[in-house]
Amino acid sequence: MSKRPNEKNERLKRRFLEYRKYAKRLSEKSLDREISALERFDIWNGRKDFKSFHIEQAMGFRSHLEVSKSTKGKPLAKSSMRAILSTLREFILWLTQQDGFRSKIKAADADYFNLSRRDEAEARAAPPRPAPSIPQAKHALGLMPSTTAHKKRDKAVFALLCLTGIRVAALASLKIKHVDMREKSVTQNPREVATKFGKSIDTFFAKDFAEAEKALAEWLTYLDQTALYGPDDPLFPATAIQASIRQGFTATGFHRNHWKSTEPIRKIVRQAFEAANLPNYGLMLDSSEPGLLRGDLCEWRLSWAAKRLAEAKAQGLKVILLLHHNPCALQMPVDTYRLEAPEKLLKVLHESGADIIQILAGHCHITTAGSWGGYPCATLSGNQHSVEPFLRGRIGQQDCYESPAQYAVIMSDGVNCAVHFQSYVNESTIMDPELFRLFSALLSRFRISNRA
């Protein structure tokens, strides 16, 4: 168990982040990374007062990072190490200018938070990223339907990505006026478009991609003549969702505003490559189905899962299956909303012969652990609310209540597999470790007296 935060250190970290935000004009995303780096060092250093900083701590922390693992269990990337050390270097330089630290810490001490020259060069080298070829992109685009307004929009999203390679954050914030079909260009004005570092960028369409230009032009025509959108309206408006008792959540049109995140765009691309039976570059099994509160896995997704499981078996890999809708029956009223026809997925799992060591799902908002069809299966509560456990004999609807937000961490070493449920918004009081030592001593005396 890590020590409690040091109040003096926390104040300094807060002041440093304010300096980085207002004086150095860092974004919230960058600040999140910096506070994570500071916290990482603070925990490793045992929450010692920053006034006691010594260069040996910097050298020790760098050695610690060299043997650290990422969340995926792989050695920490040199680029990640460089970013962490860079934050700490800036922090130490800032400390040297603060009252009470000028005589204790020298500016040169910050230089110890540096990688070796070789590691620095590796960190700066851009890693190769998998990407589809032009024929693959054209094939996927050609299979995308455009029978409804939502499908027209999705196809136009994919088309514009093919034509420009624009960043998804910028694409999500584009307005109609930013696209010029005559000039075959996109103007990314940083005052209105979320460009990287607020740069002004003019992007021109790739050549020989008439299919993509046609899909984009059809969408613009729809917005202009059918939806009656104007130049300042979003190029890709967010989907309007309506809840109903019988059908659950259904798409009812569009909101005249931008998407709040880039995830809908990423989902459009993933599904396009799924439908084309092409590599999807990081796809996870998705059990959501538009218009259904219950989840479902279509025949194509089941087929895709079967292929991936066959690959895992051929390589001798153990499999952890993640999906949103719980396939196992919890024997409670919430089973009404579990995965539709779970036996279809169970058949795929059994026929694959893959070594499936854990299944984890959500949706039901209840923390459970058990088995499903012979496979270990667990569900977790949500980060919004929890559902009341409902044992047999009770009737009615299960109540929902506010509770600490929860996430799950799966830890596996190839032999053991454990699911840890963590309530990360928990106001419970940390118990004094001295109580456990006192209890242990009393228990030892009790055992001695019984033997006597």
Characterization of the model:
The structure is a single chain. With 452 residues, the protein is α+β, with helices and mostly antiparallel strands. The protein folds into 3 domains: 118 residues; 133 residues, Orthogonal Bundle (hpI Integrase, Chain A), CATH 1.10.443; 127 residues, 4-Layer Sandwich (Purple Acid Phosphatase, chain A, domain 2), CATH 3.60.21. The chain is 39% helix and 15% strand. It has 13 helices and 13 strands. The strands form 5 sheets. A 4-stranded mixed beta sheet has the order 6-7-9-8, with helices on one face. A 3-stranded antiparallel beta sheet has the order 1-2-3, with no helix packed on it. A two-stranded antiparallel sheet has the order 4-5. Helix 1 packs antiparallel against helix 2, helix 7 packs across helix 10 and helix 11 runs parallel beside helix 12. The radius of gyration is 27 Å and the shape is globular.
SSE layout and pairing:
Layout: H1 7-22, H2 28-44, H3 55-66, H4 78-95, H5 117-124, H6 134-143, H7 149-164, H8 168-172, E1 179-180, E2 185-188, E3 201-204, H9 210-226, E4 239-244, E5 248-254, H10 263-275, H11 299-314, E6 318-325, H12 342-352, E7 355-362, E8 368-372, E9 375-379, E10 386-387, E11 400-401, E12 406-412, E13 417-423, H13 433-451
Parallel strand pairs: 6-7, 7-9
Antiparallel strand pairs: 1-2, 2-3, 4-5, 8-9, 10-11, 12-13
Helix pairs in contact: 1-2, 2-4, 4-5, 6-7, 7-9, 7-10, 11-12
